[in-house]
Design a protein that fits this description.
single chain; alpha/beta; four-stranded antiparallel sheet; three-stranded parallel sheet; 13 helices; 9 strands
């Protein structure tokens, strides 16, 4: 755990967000330990950082004019026990980078603290998982472009997807079709006419004699309210029925495990790439189904509560009406009146349903219009990204990158940026043999590492005149390389460090130290070794103890 522990400590002191299960915090050996890191600042002076394992959320800073003598920790601190989030901002201020100023230093530092998992891709580091918006805008910025162009484009994509999901949800839950808007408007006209006819028929009735005028007013008031309540009950019952039907139609999707079992039963190979895409689809459909079911259940509960209240009010009004009905003398006329009243309540309920459908259709049309606007804005973003790529802001980085690869391997290499069919940015780094042919070397792990090394160094060289990182750490970069390549790499890195004032840190095991045979000249720079570790006894361990 020697070289890995060293990287953990450096990253820990540079304010990595370590969990309690992390390599340092989870090990009892480190309980109570306090680590210090001295950093030379670009604007002059030195910064000492203190962070303890037992209280990792409290960080202290001390700025000195001169380097510490024998690295004796300061007795006093300029900023002591600063809370973690404030400390990250404070360290940003101390570093005072004038490159990538819109990004925190923790976003870029991983390029200059590469672990084994960070050699798999030159641009997408191990921590850059998830959506493209989490890392592609940053890489675009890193290469000298305007990362906001990529960010805005990806945000448009997400917003379009979100609005599209809203439309699909409305169509499923309300069973609406935008193309039927004219039909629904026509039905509204028809039902409005039916309502007017029913109201006209009801107005013709005279239920009471002159001496019962007050009773007539009471009955009419009760009946109007009952009419409204019945219409509302009809609407609520219809909505509850639709929701119950929708809930009964929700079925669990076919699970990946069952699909794999089916393939195994018929002795068919199930591709890993298909498995990954199916997992993404499964996660997406589960999310949509879960959100839809929650929405439906919440609505069902609310509507059922409203229906209970409506039924209670109807019962109360009917009881009052029954008391008044006994005063009526024209029972046959009243029976006919009830027929028209029931018809009116039904029509009013249907009118409410049609009006709600029309509202949802209009909302859908509004969303569609918003999507169209977003698509036009996305086209502008795609065009702007294309123009930026054509401007080749990364040309200088590319030139340095190719020079390093050529010196080390004898081959050319390029960094290329393009847009895919969706207009999204794609980054690539490859070895080249001719103008148009890409070699297969970039597919090998060892030679992929060299591309990563060259990229990181080209970034440091390109920004050497700015306030930016002055070091890079590469873990196990020599593993699997030919000895001649190793020597060339060491010579190139030493030249670059001397020329640009950089610090190159690498870890290497004894068996990977290059040998000198067949008259090959060169010498491993043993004088540059700052730390040697061994597992012979505790004296060779990083912390002087075994664990």
């Amino acid at each position: 755990m020697g070289k890995t522990s060293l990287l953990y400590v450096i990253d820990f002191l540079l304010l990595n967000t370590f969990s309690r299960k992390s390599a340092l915090l989870a090990n009892d050996v480190f309980a109570g330990q306090i680590f210090y890191l001295e950093v030379k600042l670009n604007q002059g002076g030195y910064l000492v950082i203190r962070r303890g394992v037992s209280a990792p959320s409290k960080i202290s800073f001390k700025r000195n004019q001169y380097k510490l003598t024998d690295f004796i920790p300061p007795a006093e601190w300029d900023d002591e026990d600063v809370p973690f989030m404030d400390a990250k901002q404070k360290l940003n201020e101390y570093l005072a980078f004038d490159v990538l100023v819109s990004w925190p230093f923790r976003k870029s530092i991983t390029y200059f603290l590469r672990t084994q998992k960070d050699y798999l891709d030159v641009f997408q580091l191990g921590k850059f998982t998830g959506k493209h918006i989490y890392w592609k805008p940053f890489v675009f910025d890193l290469l000298g472009f305007d990362g906001d162009l990529v960010r805005r484009k990806l945000e448009k994509d997400e917003e379009i997807e979100k609005r599209g999901n809203e439309i699909r949800t409305l169509q499923k839950q309300a069973n609406i079709d935008v193309a039927e808007r004219d039909k629904i408007v026509g039905l509204l006209d028809v039902k409005t006419q039916e309502k007017e006819r029913a109201e006209a028929e009801i107005d013709k009735f005279n239920f009471y004699s002159q001496d019962k005028g007050v009773t007539k007013q009471l009955i009419e008031s009760i009946d109007v309210e009952l009419q409204q309540l019945n219409a509302e009950r009809y609407r609520l019952s219809h909505e509850i029925k639709k929701i119950n039907e929708s809930l009964s139609q929700i079925r669990p999707a076919v699970r990946l495990s069952k699909l794999k079992d089916l393939y195994d039963e018929v002795s068919l190979f199930f591709p890993e790439s298909l498995s990954k895409r199916f997992e993404e689809l499964e996660s997406f459909t589960d999310s949509i189904s879960s959100e839809r079911q929650k929405y439906l259940v919440d609505n069902l509960t609310r509507l059922q509560d409203e229906l209970v209240q409506i039924n209670f009010q109807i019962q109360r009004q009917q009881n009052q009406r029954s008391e008044k009905i006994s005063l009526l003398t024209e029972a046959d006329v009243y029976s006919k009146f009830k027929v028209y009243q029931k018809e009116l309540a039904t029509v009013e309920g249907e009118l409410k349903l049609l009006s709600e459908k029309l509202r949802l259709i209009d909302n859908t049309s509004t969303i569609r219009a918003a999507i169209e606007t977003l698509r036009n804005e996305r086209k502008e973003c795609v065009a702007a990204i294309g123009e930026a790529i054509d401007g080749r802001a990364h040309a200088e980085i590319n030139r340095i990158f190719n020079q390093i690869i050529t010196e080390v391997t004898g081959n050319n290499a390029i960094i290329s940026i393009k847009q895919n069919s969706d207009g999204n940015v794609e980054f690539d780094a490859d070895y080249q043999t001719t103008t148009n042919i890409t070699t297969s070397e970039a597919d090998g792990t060892s030679y992929k590492k060299l591309l990563c090394v060259a990229f990181d160094l080209s970034l440091l060289i390109h920004n050497a005149k700015h306030s930016f990182y002055r070091f890079v750490y590469h873990d196990g970069v020599m593993e699997g390389l030919d000895d001649r390549i190793k020597i060339r790499l060491l010579n190139v890195t030493q030249r670059i460090c001397n020329e640009y004032g950089l610090q190159y840190i690498l870890t290497i095991i004894n068996s990977d130290i290059p040998k000198y045979t067949n008259g090959f000249e060169g010498a491993f720079p043993y004088s540059s070794v700052c730390l040697k570790l061994s597992d012979e006894d505790d004296s060779g361990k990083l912390f002087g103890i075994s664990f």
